[in-house]
C-alpha cells in the first residue's frame, strides 16, 4: 500500500466539502468535520473502495471519480440509513442449505446461516452450549 502523502487527507477533505457542501444530505444540518461519513449509494465494488482508502492513497483521477458517487451524511443519518436499508442492499438472497435442526431450506442474504429463525436458533445455541460444556469437562477445550 502506498504511503500517505503529508497533508493529503486534510486537503482532500477540503475538496470534498467544496464539492458536496458542509451539510448532511439527509437531515440538512451542519456539523464539525469529524462527524461526517461518506456513503456509497450504489454500494462498493470491493473492499478497497472504502472512502478512507481512496482519500488517503488513491491517485487524483480515481479520487475525483469516486467523489461524484459519494453522499455526505452525518454519522447518525448514515447509521440510520444502513439500519433501515441494510449494509449490503445489492446482496441477493440465496439458498444457503438446510436448517441443522428442522431440515427446512434456508434462504438468506447472510453468508453463514446454519438454522432457520426462532426455535431452531435457540435449540442450536443450546446444542452448542452443551457441546462446549462437555468438551470442557473432558479437557478438550
Structure description:
With 141 residues, this protein is an alpha+beta fold. The protein folds into two domains: 8-85, no CATH class; 94-137, no CATH class. It has five helices and four strands, in the order αβααβαββα. The protein has a two-stranded antiparallel ribbon with strand order 1-2. It has a two-stranded antiparallel ribbon with strand order 3-4. The longest helix has 19 residues, at 119-137. It is elongated. The mean pLDDT is 81.
Number of helices: 5
What's the helix-strand series? HEHHEHEEH
> Which stretches are low in confidence, meaning pLDDT under 50 for 5 or more residues running?
none
Distance between the termini: 39 Å
For the sheet with most strands, the description reads:
2 strands, antiparallel
Q: Care to count the β-strands?
A: 4
Helix content: 40-55%
Mean pLDDT: 81
Shape annotation: elongated
In short:
The protein has 141 residues and is α+β, with helices and mostly antiparallel strands.
What attributes does this structure have?
single chain, 141 residues, alpha+beta, 2 domains, two-stranded antiparallel ribbon, 12% strand, elongated
Give the helices and strands, then pairings.
Blueprint: H1 8-20, E1 36-39, H2 51-57, H3 60-67, E2 71-74, H4 75-85, E3 94-98, E4 105-108, H5 119-137
Antiparallel strand pairs: 1-2, 3-4
Amino acid at each position: 500500500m502506498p504511503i500517505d502523502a503529508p497533508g493529503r487527507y486534510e486537503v482532500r477533505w477540503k475538496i470534498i466539502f467544496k464539492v458536496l457542501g458542509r451539510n448532511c444530505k439527509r437531515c440538512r444540518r451542519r456539523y464539525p468535520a469529524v462527524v461526517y461519513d461518506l456513503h456509497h449509494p450504489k454500494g462498493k465494488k470491493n473492499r478497497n473502495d472504502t472512502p478512507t482508502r481512496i482519500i488517503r492513497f488513491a491517485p487524483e483521477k480515481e479520487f475525483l471519480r469516486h467523489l461524484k458517487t459519494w453522499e455526505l451524511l452525518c454519522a447518525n443519518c448514515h447509521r440510520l440509513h444502513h439500519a433501515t436499508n441494510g449494509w449490503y442492499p445489492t446482496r441477493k438472497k440465496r439458498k444457503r442449505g438446510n436448517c441443522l435442526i428442522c431440515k427446512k431450506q434456508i434462504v438468506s442474504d447472510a453468508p453463514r446461516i446454519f438454522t432457520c429463525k426462532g426455535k431452531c436458533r435457540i435449540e442450536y445455541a443450546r446444542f452448542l452450549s452443551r457441546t462446549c460444556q462437555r468438551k470442557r469437562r473432558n479437557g478438550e477445550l
